[in-house]
Structure formats: structure tokens, C-alpha cells
Amino acid sequence: MHISSLGIYPHTRNFDVDKDIPDLTGKVYVVTGGTYAVSSAAKRQGYGGLGLETTFQLLRHNATVYIAGKSKKSALTAISSLKERLADKYSVQNPTVYFHHLDLENIQACVDSARDLGIKTAHIDCIIANAGISFLPFYLTRDGIENCMAHLGHFTFVTRLLAKMNDGARVVVVSSEAHEIANKINYYGITSPLANPEWLSIFGVIGPASRYAQSKFANVLFANKLARDNPRLLVNACHPGLISTGINRSAGAYTSFFNSVYNWVLSLIGMSIKDGATTQLFLATATDIERNKVTGKYFSPIALETESSKASRDINAADELWEWSETKVKETIMDSQIKDLKIRNMN
């Protein structure tokens, strides 16, 4: 783990969102997971969303932003909050920000979401795959995927939008240094309730943590493979830092006590939300990324190129994950189409 990821240590600031983000007029950004922590109660608990802060800074510099998320209600509340904050702090009026529906737990919905977004916009300059969750009680999604494996949704959504991305467009995959805990993907465990690791947990902590680490490991593998196969794009992964963001807000009763302690500690020693969002904003906006053709890299706070784990740089592992993902997506889409056909025939 790079020492700069810890808020309690001095960290090199290689990028300043107040000075270094260029004018983004005409640029179109898609940010997944940009709706969390707009309530005063959440803010009092020290929570805030990286996606929300990222969106705020992009809008502040005149970008067009699509907030891609599941809850329209939360998104509209977030947009209202963003507009109020932009007007109060920077006199920015009428920022160009839209809600776009995206359910990352539903593969067919991700396909539909990408198609719909492709109709809405002529081009996309950057996708920030920011949405994530941790410490969820184990369950399988409707597609039969372990719920913390936040990979297939982004894989499906991003790969179907590549045609909308011109040369030099960017993809930022938000991972975590937790990826270093994992060194391989347990493909059986992703799809089998029999492989539920929770029974191995100490008070329900170890299982969720290992599943989260595997998810973040998959994020880095995905970013590396996407960069390697698409040299015309600028694709990078990052660790935002240790921040109390509420990413574990949906944890079960097993881990509620540990989450409370964890978030309390981070509220004291962790990085701020603004600092936490800075590395992904650097990758999404900095002119140096385009000038130096930076792609296939991993960054830690703040905007510091580091090295992901050796296992996450394994080309064969990345190829295996990509092949598995393509197969799983195709199977799921086919199953969905068959179900729809049966329903139509019944009617």
C-alpha cells in the first residue's frame, strides 16, 4: 500500500482542482455513482460521495455531465444540491447536468442504458466508472452474480459506449488499494451461493472484505485490458485514498459496528472528499494525460503514478476476466431475450 493513500501522512499534491482543471466547455462526461450523500444527515456523519464531488468540479469548469445511477429521485436531489452549491460558491448558473438511468446490477439494463445514452449524445469525452459498494451481506443479483462484484455492470456499460468515444477520449476506473489483498478471481464464487464466504468471517467482516478486494482487483484487470486493446483511448485506474464516503452504507447488521468505528476513524484521519476525488479528476481532465498519452497506468493520491499489484498486471489474468465477462454478458442477454419472447407469446 502506498503511504500517500493514508490521510494521516503528508501526500504529494501533483494536481490542484482549484487551479489545474482546464475549461471543459464542449466536453461530455459520464460519471457513475454521482448521487450519494447530499442529505445534511449524511454530511453530519462525515459521508460524501466521490462521484458527487467529481461531478461538482466538472460542472464548475463548464463540462456537460451525465450522472449515471439507479435512483432518479436521488439523482434529482443531487442535481439540485449541485446547482445550489455552484451558484453559491462560484456563481455558476444553469450547469449542464443530466440524470441517466443505469442499474449496474442488471446486465440487460446496462445494455439498454448504453444504447439510450448513445442516442442522447453525439460523443463522450470521458467515462468515470466511479460507482461501487462494499460490505454488503452476500446475495446473488437477478443475473446470478455475487452482489459486491462491481465489475460486470461497468464492463457492459463502458464497452458498449466505446463507439461514441473519439481518439483521445478517456476512461477512468476507480479501484482501491484493497485490490492488493486479492491475487486471483474466484469465478466459481462469483456465481454460486454455495461459495458464500460469510461463514468464514469473524463477525461478518472477513467475507465482505475479501469480496470487495476481489471486485477492486477486477477493476484494475479490466482497466489494463481495456487500455491494451484500445490504444486510441486513454484508460487508467486509480485509488482515491482512505475516505469516509459511505461506500459501505448498505452493510448488514454483522458489520454495522465495525463500519461505525471505521467511518469514525476515517472522519478523523482520512482524506477529505475533495482530495479523494482529485486523482480521478486529474485522470479525467489534466492536459498532461493527453499530452503524454498516459494510459494503462495506476494512480494513488494525489495524482501520483504508482504501481498496482503484480497479480493485477498479469496479462493472462486480464484476458481470462475479459473472456469470462463477455461470455457471461452474452449468456445473460440471451436469457433475457428468451424470457421476453416467452412473455410476449403468453400475451
Automatic annotation (TrEMBL):
SUPFAM superfamilies in the record: NAD(P)-binding Rossmann-fold domains
Organism: Neolecta irregularis (strain DAH-3)
Protein name: Putative oxidoreductase
Protein's UniProt keywords contain Oxidoreductase: yes
PANTHER family in the record: RETINOL DEHYDROGENASE, WW DOMAIN-CONTAINING OXIDOREDUCTASE
GO molecular function, one term: oxidoreductase activity
Keywords: NADP, Oxidoreductase
Superkingdom of the source species: Eukaryota
Family of the protein in this entry: Belongs to the short-chain dehydrogenases/reductases (SDR) family.
Keyword Oxidoreductase applies: yes
